[in-house]
Design brief:
Layout lengths: L7 H6 L4 H6 L14 E3 L5 H7 L6 E6 L4 H16 L5 E6 L4 H6 L7 E6 L2 E7 L4 H14 L9 H13 L3 H14 L4 H13 L3 H9 L3 H4 L2 H15 L7 H10 L4 H13 L3 H15 L2 H17 L4 H15 L1
């Protein structure tokens, strides 16, 4: 990431700048990432990096070769899942063409072959490429056998803690946890979307926009990022609208069919955290004149749903009301 960062206001609010949050984060590969969770291993360092290292945490050894087709599917999947494990397990990659002695000692007869070591001994293993769901299960079983399956520092646990802090209205604290995730997995879409939402929660719209703008095109298409973008666009649209709540309510009191005023009121209500009232305002516009302004109320309500998330209680209830209006 480049040095485009929010200014001193972000530091005063306690949220790290974009450079601090994601600028230095990178994939943990080849022994250079956080915690060195993925390494290329040779015969000369197998004892130290696998046998001795497994006394501290499980080591998954991936026996592969450049010419092996299934290996090209398995290895990236293993790297992804090991990275997501947040340091609880390490992946050691052994090129059998260059390290035939190790392969012979462990009786590796076909590749890919994977062994899990713990406390200096093989714990489990398999041959052939497995789907990601089975690989995830394999790693979980290894961690449970090693007594580390419930480690609170895992990516999943960190994300859950950060999301809960966001629900409690603590974006600064949540941002620091999302940053910890990004230190382990720099392209974690949930964490990146969390950073964007944390900036929105702190009122730092420019910082949130900067984080989104610097993401790769592939990441921008992820559903979590799209949801954060919808929330950002709503926040940008509603900037300053909350101050007009009284005026908008007065306009509607004078003319109940002032759809623009009711639409603007919905935006202002959402900006002040009154989601249910915001949804009801748009639903009322749809009830009175569905086609108004090229169905602007319906389209805006859908954007609300995207920003709030599909499982948000207000989203669920408003969707039911919308369906009732559209299909009655």
């Amino acid at each position: 990431m480049n040095s485009t960062t929010p200014g001193s206001e972000s530091r005063e609010k306690g949220i790290a700048t974009m450079e601090e949050i994601i600028g230095s984060a990178g994939p943990a590969t080849n022994g250079t990432g956080p915690g060195n969770v993925i390494k290329d291993i040779s015969e000369k360092d197998f004892m130290a990096e696998v046998i001795e290292a497994s006394m501290q945490r499980p080591i998954i050894v991936d026996f592969w070769a450049p010419w092996c087709g299934p290996c090209k599917q398995l290895t990236p999947a293993l790297e992804k899942l090991v990275t997501q494990a947040g340091g609880k397990v390490m992946l050691a990659k052994v090129n059998v063409d260059e390290n035939q002695g190790i392969a012979q000692q462990l009786r590796v007869q076909s590749i890919p072959t994977v062994y899990a070591f713990y406390q200096g001994r093989p714990l489990d293993g398999f041959q052939g490429a497995l789907p990601e769901s089975q690989l995830r299960q394999f790693i979980q079983q290894v961690l449970e056998a090693a007594g580390g399956g419930d480690d609170e520092n895992s990516i999943e646990a960190l994300l859950e803690q950060a999301d809960e802090l966001m629900r409690q209205g603590q974006p600064e604290a949540a941002a620091s946890l999302y940053a910890q995730v990004l230190e382990q997995d720099a392209e974690n879409a949930k964490a990146l979307s969390g950073v964007i939402r944390a900036y929105i929660g702190a009122g730092e719209m420019e910082a949130a926009r900067a984080v989104f703008d610097e993401l790769s095109e592939a990441l921008k298409l992820q559903s979590d990022i799209q949801g954060a973008l919808a929330a950002l666009e709503l926040a940008e649209q509603a900037d300053g609208a909350a101050a007009n709540l009284a005026d908008l309510q007065a306009k509607i009191a004078q003319d109940a069919n002032d759809h623009q005023a009711r639409f603007d009121l919905a935006m202002a209500l959402n900006a002040t955290g009154q989601r249910e009232e915001a949804a009801d305002a748009l639903l009322e516009v749809i009830r009175r004149q569905r086609a108004w302004n090229d169905e602007a109320a319906r389209k805006q309500l859908v954007q609300f749903f995207e920003a709030w998330g599909p499982t948000d209680p207000v989203t669920v209830q408003a969707r039911k009301k919308l369906s009732s209006l559209l299909f009655s």
